[in-house]
Amino acid sequence: MNKHLGGQSIKFAEPVSIVSAASVVGSKEGEGPLSRYFDVILSDILAGKKSWEKAESEILRQSLELAVKKADTELDKIDYIITGDLLNQNTGSTYGAMDLQRPMFAVFGACSTIGEALSLGAVFVDGGFAHTVLAGASSHFCAAEKQFRFPLELGTQRPPSSTWTVTGAGSFVLSKDGEAPFITGVTTGKIVDMGVKDQNNMGAAMAPAAADVIAAHFRDFKRTPGYYDCIITGDLGTVGKELLIKLLDAEGFDISKNHTDCGIEIFNPEIQDTHAGGSGCACSAVTFAGYFYSKLKKREINRVLFVPTGALLSPVSFMQGENIPSIAHAVVAENKR
Amino acid sequence: MNQSELAKERYLELVKKATPNSKILKNCVKAFIIGGLICCLGQFIHAVLERFGLSKTEVSSYTSIILVFLGAFFTGIGWYDKLGNFAGAGSIVPITGFANSVTAPAVEFKKEGFILGVGAKMFIVAGPVIVYGTLASVLVGLFYFFTR
Question: CA angle at residue A202 from A281 to A189, to 5 degrees?
Answer without folding.
Answer: 65
